[in-house]
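Q: How would the structure tokens look for this protein?
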Amino acid sequence: MNLHDLIRDLREPNTTKIVLVVADGLGGLPLEMGGKTELETARTPNLDGCAREGVCGLSVPVLPGITPGSGPGHLGLFGYDPLEYKIGRGILEALGINFQVGPRDVAVRCNFCTVDDKGVIADRRAGRPTTERCVAMCQKLAAIKVPGVELFVEPVREHRFVVVFRGDNLGDKVNDTDPQQVGAEPLLAVGEDEASQHTAKAVNQFVAEAGRLLKHDAPTNMITLRGFARYPKIDTMQEVYGLKAACIAVYPMYKGLARLVGMDVVEAGATLSDQVETLKKFWDAYDFFFMHYKYTDSTGEDGNFDGKVEMIERLDAEIPKVRALNPDVLIITGDHSTPSKLKSHSWHPVPTLLAARTCRPDAVVEFGESYCLRGGLGQFEAKHLMSLAMAHAGRLGKYGA
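A: Here is the predicted structure in token form.
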């Protein structure tokens, strides 16, 4: 029996409320040996208060030593084993902008990037252009025609956009064309099987034409593609947990993740304060709320230690408004670590706190990596967080006689 089948057998109806706050890329590293992480440096009286009243630990997004993308990191938090449910990023981005993906579609997440005169990548994110520029560049790319496929080019946000290839006999086993580093040229797409080779051929034609069209549009003068994906079969949170779930996210990809597992995506506004107001507005309509906060991740990726500290402090300031709603279970964690020291996602376990009336007290008095290492939850795989939430919410019965 797998974990989802077990939960289906044990789940019980209740009116309790669960709130999952995900500070993207929350975990960090000290800049110097013996120093403090971004979370430990930040002034977080409200998060510390939650930690003292709840129970803490460190969650492992996939497995020890494995660095997760945002998709696997969130699926684990939702209780879906990221090793079993391997979801391409393209489908998440497409669902995030509410694009209706069909059975003949392969979706892919794309970046505008900057290349020099030799075609070498100088900036993987094209200087984070405005969304308005992203829209304008996508309109240019929409004119591209590739024989044998129908193309849809849709803007997402800043440097990110989605391309959907629609046609017969298209596969999604195609490598990323993003080399994940500056100083290298974009890679050619290569398919692993016959259907994916058809996709790769169309991709390479599209990219070549995109390079020609964008040649004089620096910094958005080239594109990279990653996360080729067809629509997967996945059970919803309602089917697994019996929960009516809502997503309160600003960035499209996280809306896509939520839609994939059957959450309703409600209008979240543009700021964290707006998101908290949305939480209040829909409080009576749902059992489970996923609230996503992006900027702890983007500052980490930019290598901005002080900026990440500030973003953590902004999150802390909103926590009293969430607690004022008296959720039966409040979980605060991240989908992965993004240390500003590394400027990237990392494999390090993620600080996690769970506050509920049924918590067994531990010795944690501050919310930070060092304290969470000694917390009552220990180090655990993130896929078990939802069963803990369900138990503390009084929604799981006894196993066995």
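The longest strand covers residues 105-115.

The chain has a mean pLDDT of 95.

Upvote if useful.
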